Amino acid sequence: MTPKEQVIDNIKVVCQCRNIKKGAFKKLIESGVTDLNEISRITGAGAGQCKGKRCGPRLEKMLEE
Ligand code: FES
């Protein structure tokens, strides 16, 4: 990952209601957490206002990558 990508990951918000950045999810996925329900349980993403409608597809895409 380039330094530029790292900066973007630490700015880009994936879960807006909990203000969780892309980088935080990336770290979690890289540590071996690859189940969407587990990611949601750990971070609270999907349990906020959007109920996963907004962040869910973004997280699914990250897991595919
Ligand atoms: S954006 Fe936060 S729960 Fe979906």
**Weakly predicted, low-confidence segments:** none
How much is the average pLDDT?
95
- Principal-axis shape equals globular
Question: What portion of residues is helical?
Answer: 40-55%
The percentage of residues in β strands lies in 5-15%
Molecules bound to protein: FE2/S2 (inorganic) cluster
Would you write up a description of this structure?
- It is a single chain.
- This protein has one domain (3-64): BFD-like [2Fe-2S]-binding domain (Arc Repressor Mutant, subunit A, Orthogonal Bundle), CATH 1.10.10.1100.
- It contains four helices and two strands.
- The protein has helices at residues 3-9, 22-30, 36-43, 55-64; strands spanning 13-15, 20-21.
- 15% of the residues are buried.
- The protein has a two-stranded antiparallel ribbon.
- The protein has 65 residues and is mainly α.
- A hairpin with a 4-residue loop joins strand 1 (13-15) and strand 2 (20-21).
- It is globular and about 30 Å long.
- Helix content is 52%, strand content 8%.
- Residues 15-18, 45-48, 50, 52, 54-55 line the site of FE2/S2 (inorganic) cluster.
